[in-house]
Specification:
The chain is flat. The protein has 507 residues and is mainly β. The protein has 1 helix and 39 strands. The longest helix is centred in the first third of the chain and has 37 residues. The strands form 10 sheets. A 4-stranded antiparallel β-sheet has the order 1-2-3-4, with no helix packed on it. Strand 1 and strand 2 form a beta hairpin. The protein has a domain of 64 residues.
Length: 507
């Protein structure tokens, strides 16, 4: 055999060297075997290359795909969509007139139902969940949506749900404080005020006072914007239509807007004194010293009724602060004040409810309903629903509701909220007797017969918020997501609707 130099073959290929000189290396069968082996090796290399490339591509797809930016979804025009399918969900109700009920669901959609039948008028799903509460002025529904990046104000036609306009707000954390027929007022996180035109959402004016604070209150009353800065203890007034600065006052201690008229603002600027200020320039018309911090205050028919720090009830002429009358008992009267039908009702820490003649302060009657030093809710509680002017209702914190005759103070009946008794009534004659509706501690409520407090019917579902009573129908939103209409006379269900949590597909 010959000595031949070694030659390194290429990758995946074999060089065949004939070491036997006596053999015929060009024999056909030898050439066939050589070609077949080379073809096999080349094919093997191609398969290995494909397999390695495929494995690498699969690895990159699995690892890098979640990191790649997602393609933007095609934008769809927001518009009213068909009514949702029934699925339970808690709701917030903003009732308007006797025709339409507007509902804001937990998924952030806005729904409008016909009040008499519960039939859906329209359903609107904004790009982000709608904030609560809805604000309805005239024929427009206003609300905002908020994300970490932006806040958007919406105006919908209240009749058909179609957008009238939408506008991105200049700050992502603005709160809609008030809406009028002409403007929307927003308060920023650091006391900034932004005002939008209610017709088209354009910016009318903005205001940020020097030393503005995140601890600020905003109120729009009788054409004036009042902003209270609790850090600086100041209150400032702006013209609502233009944002023009009117005046500012420095307070000491408590600062409260007690009441306003178009011409006068009654403002507490210290723990013991409140002022009557001219709304146009802030000049002091008169002041009264001796009030109780956080005491009761109400303005009715140009008369101010209030409790003082000594426990006396006084009545002042609202225009000039002149003392009209005062009422004092041996025991200080520091309770809540309600004025109705020329009578001032108030409760006291001595456990009595008092009725005073609103014009002269003369005691009409008083009734003992509680032990001394036991606090209770004010008379004509917001948890009692009735149209009667002949009776007054006192809901106490021990779970008892009392009904008194307004003219004499006679106790007509009392109802212990924790005790549900069978109805004592004639099933036919008493079905349409006047009733009073009282919310119980578990958020259910009862209908009591007005003349004697007997139970007419009991609603056993927990309500989301106080019912609306309109033309003999109670409209109720429940905590399990139902919207119901009940006959106020009998408690019979007229209709019910469940609000969908998922937005329906667009038309």
């Amino acid at each position: 055999m010959q000595n031949t130099p070694y030659i390194e073959p290429p990758d995946d290929e074999v060089s065949i060297t004939d070491l036997d000189a006596n053999d015929n290396k060009y024999h056909p069968s030898a050439r066939f075997v050589q070609r077949a082996l080379q073809y096999f090796l080349r094919t093997k290399r191609r398969f290995l290359t494909i397999a390695i490339a495929g494995t690498s591509a699969l690895f990159l797809l699995v690892v890098l795909l979640p990191l790649l930016p997602k393609p933007a979804a095609p934008q769809q025009k927001e518009r009213p969509t068909p009514p949702p399918s029934p699925t339970a969900n808690a709701v917030e109700t903003a009732y308007l007139s006797d025709k339409i009920i507007y509902i804001n669901t937990l998924d952030g959609s806005i729904n409008a139902l016909q009040a008499k039948s519960g039939q859906a008028f329209w359903h609107y799903q904004p790009a982000s969940p709608a904030s609560r509460p809805l604000t309805i002025v005239q024929n427009t529904v206003y609300f905002t949506t908020q994300t970490n990046q932006k806040s958007v104000a919406y105006a919908l036609d209240a009749g058909n749900g179609r957008p009238r306009w939408q506008r991105q707000l200049p700050d992502a954390h603005l709160s809609l404080i008030s809406a009028t027929a002409t403007a929307l007022y927003f308060l920023g996180p650091n006391g900034e005020i932004y005002t939008l035109d209610a017709r088209n959402g354009t910016l009318l004016w903005q205001y940020k006072e020097k030393g503005s604070s995140s601890h600020s209150w905003l109120a729009i009353l009788n054409g004036t914007v009042y902003i209270t800065n609790l850090d600086r203890m100041t209150i400032s007034a702006l013209q609502a239509s233009t944002g023009h600065f009117l005046w500012s006052k420095q307070g000491v201690g408590a600062i409260w807007i007690l009441e306003t008229t178009p011409d006068i603002a009654y403002i507490q600027l210290s723990n013991t004194t409140f002022y009557a200020l001219k709304t146009s320039d802030g000049s002091v018309l008169w002041q009264y010293t001796g009030i109780e911090q956080g005491g009761s205050f109400t303005l009715q028919q140009n008369v101010i009724y209030l409790t003082t720090h000594t426990g006396t009830v006084v009545a002042l002429k609202a225009s000039d602060g002149a003392l009209l009358w005062q009422f004092k008992e041996m025991y200080p009267i520091w309770g809540s004040l309600v004025v109705a039908a020329q009578t001032t009702y108030l409760n006291s820490l001595d456990g009595n409810i008092y009725a005073l003649n609103a014009s002269n302060g003369r005691l009409l009657w008083r009734q003992k309903i509680n032990d001394p030093l036991t606090n209770f809710a004010p008379p004509i509680s917001g948890q009692v629903y009735t149209g009667s002017a002949e009776q007054i209702y006192v809901a106490t914190n021990n779970g008892i509701t009392y009904a008194f005759r307004t003219s004499t103070g006679e106790l007509l009946w009392q109802y212990r909220a924790g005790l549900i008794l069978p109805a004592r009534r004639n099933e036919t004659a008493a079905a349409f007797e006047p009733a009073v509706y009282i919310i119980l501690h578990d958020n259910t409520f009862v209908a009591l017969r007005l003349r004697d407090g007997a139970i007419i019917w009991h609603y056993k579902k927990a309500v989301q918020e106080p019912p609306f009573l309109e033309q003999g129908i109670l409209y109720i939103s429940t905590q399990d997501g139902l919207m119901q209409a009940l006959s106020a006379d009998t408690g019979a269900a007229l209709w019910q609707v469940a609000i969908n949590r998922q937005a329906p597909p667009a038309r």
